[in-house]
Amino acid sequence: MPELPEVEIIAIGLRRVLLGRKFVDVEVLRGRSFQGSIEAILGRNIDEVKRKGKVIWIGLSGNRGLLIHLKMTGQLVWRKKKATVVGGHPTLDWINQLPSKHTRVILKTDDGACLFFNDLRVFGWIKSVDESEWVKLQKKLPPDVIDEDFSLGSFGSMASKTKKAIKLLVMDSDKIGGVGNIYANDALWLAKINPKRMANTLSGQELKRLYESMKEVIEKGISMGGASARNYVDTSGLGGSYQNHFLSYQQDGKPCGRCGTLIRKIKIGGRGTFWCEVCQK
DNA sequence: CGGAGTGTTAGTCG
DNA sequence: CCGACTAACACTCC
Q1: Does residue A181 reach within 7 angstroms of strand B, measured from its CB?
Q2: A221, A218, A242, A220: which is closest to A230 by C-alpha?
């Protein structure tokens, strides 16, 4: 999916176009993609758009709202007339015509605009829920990696408690919010740490480097408007250029940006892992 | 054509 | 509790 930076960019985009509007109609093209009451979101004022981890919350008046998770391949594309404002996961189809083959839900607002939820693999979802679900969810989710309350101390404590490969800890969404595969690979490269290392063998200095690197790559992702592993920039023109600056992700066979050694690809926990065997110790 | 791989994360099982 | 594995699904790539 979009990872945290991409979701953040999407939330900002949605905020710009949705606040003060109302949903007037919802078309569900794939049942699995929309859960809960449609009726309960219609005609209410859209008060806020927030994000925690990779979940988006669209808060409506009357203590209702929508929770959205894009998972691997979800997109949210807002369109009014011909202007496309909010992007997400890349595929070419939505540039040309909406709804597309992968459009699962269409949310229509009172200004005549449509928000298309496209999702190739149908892992993502939109849920119409009471605001209490959002409150509960925020309590349940761990702090985002870029939050103040994700401290070096807590990271170190997590690491000391597990022998799992450090990359699995970095990506563990029960413990640290918002670090998916792309940014986990890049953070480990930046911190010069071998992704296979057992978490509890990292020194204090290494933990600090990795902690700072995680924040750095995520923030860089946001400042670049997000990324996608495919040809997003070519076709959308919506910004999102982090994919041109991957440090190790999908760089297998290419020279390491530091030492020139060819980046290798292995698998950790079933996920593609890219690393430089010379500088990542 | 078959099989592996894909940005996530719940859930299950030992 | 922890860790390993799988499923949810549809498509692309080799």
Answers
A1: yes
A2: A242
Does the predicted model carry a pTM greater than 0.90?
yes
Question: CB of A143 within 8 A of CB of A19?
Answer: no
User: Would you call A40 helix, strand, or coil by DSSP?
Assistant: helix
Gap from A82 CA to B6 C1', Å: 31
Nearest nucleotide from residue A30 CA, by C1' atom: C9
Is residue A2 part of the annotated active site? The answer reads yes
Give me the CA A170–C1' B11 separation in Å, rounded. 21
**pLDDT (tens digit, 9 = 90+) per residue, A127-160?**
999 999 999 999 999 999 999 999 999 999 999 9
The pair of structure tokens assigned to A44 is: 């209410």
Residue of A49, A67, A56, A60 whose CA lies nearest to A22: A60
Chain A residues 220 to 279 whose Cβ lies within 7 Å of strand B are 227-230, 232, 267, 271-272
Percent of residues in chain A assigned helix, strand, coil, to nearest 5: 30, 25, 40
Main-chain dihedrals φ then ψ at residue A18, nearest 5 degrees: -100, -30
R_g of chain A, CA atoms, integer Å: 20
What does the alpha-carbon distance between residue A13 and residue A64 come to, in Å, rounded to a whole number? 21
Work out if A122's Cβ lies within 7 angstroms of strand B.
no
